[in-house]
Write a structure and sequence with these properties.
The protein is an alpha+beta fold. It has a domain of about 120 residues. Helix content is about 30%, strand content about 20%. A hairpin with an 8-residue loop joins β2 and β3. It starts with 11 loop residues before the first helix and ends in a 15-residue tail after the last helix.
Amino acid sequence: MQRGKPSSDGGSAQSAAASPALDALGRSVRSASFPEEFCSELSKMFQVLSTEVAVFRVEDGQLKFLYPVALRTAGSIPLSSSAIAAHTAVGQKAELYNNFPRIKHASIFEHVKLTQQGEDSAGERPIQKLMSAPVLDAKGHVLGVIQISRKGYDLISAGPDFTLEQLQQLERAASLAARAPFMQSTFKIPTK
């Protein structure tokens, strides 16, 4: 997949594409019982690989992976930890890191092989850039977290920096995700 390139018009090309992308995301929320379709739309919206999208749901004081599927059985993140996803959930605030290697973080999940034979191997490269947004219900309770990353061998190979406009788009996507069946506590997370 080709990475997004900054536009010469200050990002308005991304703005124009955001509305149809958010519309498609809204349709996927209404029709998807599982997060895969929703995450596929997020991947297209932010021009990242599917292995660069993560969705967590809060369950028993932990953030459990809903997506990528391969991480569902890899463990969970305590809300009390210093992990970025936990920080996003507890602080209920979206965050953007365009120099993620400089941020102290646990990288254990970055080492889990996410790709199938014949797919791009970005899943094996470390995260270089990250956006993280809380998924909040109508009462302001945290249901989960969505993260979009750019992986690469270094900052340059990971692609363009995320913008504040993209962070706002992620916040809107997170508000759509709050209505998705897979974010509800009654949804049973399949292990495979």
